[in-house]
Amino acid sequence: MDLTQITYLVVGCSFALYIGIAIWARAESTKEFYVAGGGVNPVANGMATAADWMSAASFISMAGLIGMSYNGYGGSVFLMGWTGGYVILAMLVAPYLRKYGKFTVPEFIGDRYYSDAARVVAVLCLVLCSVTYVIGQMKGIGVAFSRFLETDYETGLYTGMVIVFFYAVLGGMKGITYTQIAQYVVLITAYTVPAIFISFQLTGHPIPQLGLGATLQGSEVYLLDKLDQILVDTGFKDYTTTVRYSTLNMVAFTASLMIGTAGLPHVIIRFFTVPKASDARRSAGWALIFIAILYTTAPAVAAMARLNIMQTIEPSPGAHMTIADRPAWFENWERTGLLGIEDKNGDGKLQYLADAERNELVVLDNDILVLANPEIARLPNWVIALVAAGGLAAALSTAAGLLLAISSAVSHDLLKGTFMPSISERGELNASRGAMALAVFGAGYLGLNPPGFAAGTVALAFGLAASSIFPALVMGIFSTRITREGAIAGMLCGLSLTLFYVFQHKGVMFVADWRFLTHWGERWFFGIEPNAFGCVGAALNFLVAIAVSKVTREPPAPIRRLVEEIRLP
């Protein structure tokens, strides 16, 4: 069978598995729809959480951001921030919210701050975070389909919408949980198998994490030293020492990703599915282990793929690849529109240079790195097909979690909690499914018609969660003095400041070229890029909430007792 046939077979089998699980795990009550009945094993929940977390951004984009952008070492902020956030989540958030025993993040905020207005503001923050995040998943689905199943972007997106609609609307959290366990197995296999092959090819080490620091096969030269040499010879910065604009910016970006992780609603809601508070903490630990398998592999994937691409384009110093003889993988990706060339000097050779005026590789989407990596390394077709299935599993799993968070906020918090408190359980379940269906179609529309800043919406989602939801949760758990007025003012101020800063700089927000951004650093607040501004918004949230709470009446005695009881073992 050729690559297309194998890919259809592998992807088709994985889709059939997801649909079968959804039919088996159909939700029959609101508790099953929102929190999978509350009885999921911590290990299973950790695996589902890992799949929910490792989105298209982790599977497809992260290695590209590290390997193919101008960041190099500076891309480590994603690894540190996204994994470190789970430590915060396990220590400061998840166990306490699980002990409280509600279904959603806005429900906790509404009850803790004794205010329907606080609940509605939390819903607004949740929807903004989730919508910006889900756009990135839709792009991942479209990219994977467009290359490996040889469809256009729109067809791939529609197919993904149908699959998500089926198992998310039918099964709710129960169906999503067990589907995500299967999706984790698919995506982690798809990510690590090619990495093992390529590491062994280049270094003789089958473990990619060891291969990253090893010497090349038959040579005394270390892989990273070779990559640094090639990049410097081509006019780029070296790979292993380049920081992301500045040290302060790297610290701010890492902090923003960490607290944004601990504030993302679709992640937090997963910890409502386990039997008790201690299980929530164990779930976070298992999730971190499952996530670390991919995240410790990503730097090796990034470096090895960058080395393979550079050696393809420039097989020896000064000997550039002939455009007419470019390899099959190059032509395949050109057809997607995500890779493009222009022979600017007419010499028939491709020059990939740091000089933008002379660089003839005019289009190179970072998102193709992981998906193209097996083709570049000439791995078997079944490995390439497996990567396609893994990329789709990553995008679908996170999209389902995000859509559930949106629909739960609309049906449970706005409808049941605010506007129609007397609605029956059956009516609420039907409303949840209706809200989920609308969320699926809304996500599809945004995927087909993304805003101008869609390339970086995942990073924006973290900034919004960090500046709005995370401070409200932490203060609600650990302080008896924060009032409803303080919480509402803090969330609105943090969210507004972050959005204002982002849109002030949206024209350059997601450009990866550090040279282009040099003059913009002077306009940034202390040189902090928009993607990293969530931590500043969070600081403002904390300050405003505390200041307003000091001049308003303290919370009622039952609320203060509730806060104290949440923290009791």
What does this protein structure show overall?
The structure is a single chain. The chain is 68% helix and 1% strand. With 569 residues, the protein is mainly alpha-helical. The protein has a domain at 3-307 and 377-447: Hydantoin permease (Orthogonal Bundle). Strands 1-2 form a two-stranded antiparallel sheet. α7 crosses α8, α7 (116-148) runs antiparallel to α19 (457-478) and α16 (369-376) runs antiparallel to α17 (381-419). The chain is globular, with a radius of gyration of 24 Å. It starts with a helix and ends with a helix. Mean pLDDT is 83; it is low at 507-522.
Quick structural overview:
With 569 residues, this protein is mostly helical. Helix content is 68%, strand content 1%.
Summarize the SSE layout with pairings:
Elements: H1 3-24, H2 30-35, H3 42-53, H4 56-67, H5 76-100, H6 105-112, H7 116-148, H8 153-203, H9 208-211, H10 223-233, H11 247-261, H12 265-268, H13 277-295, H14 298-313, H15 328-334, E1 339-340, E2 363-364, H16 369-376, H17 381-419, H18 425-448, H19 457-478, H20 484-504, H21 534-550, H22 557-566
Antiparallel strand pairs: 1-2
Helix pairs in contact: 1-8, 1-17, 3-8, 3-13, 4-14, 4-17, 5-11, 5-13, 6-7, 6-19, 7-8, 7-17, 7-18, 7-19, 7-20, 8-17, 8-18, 10-14, 11-19, 11-21, 14-16, 16-17, 17-18, 19-20, 19-21, 20-21
The CATH class assignment of the domain at 3-307 and 377-447 is Mainly Alpha
Low-confidence stretches: 507-522
The strand line-up of the biggest sheet is 1-2
How widely separated are the two ends?
59 Å
Identify the CATH architecture of the domain at 3-307 and 377-447: Orthogonal Bundle
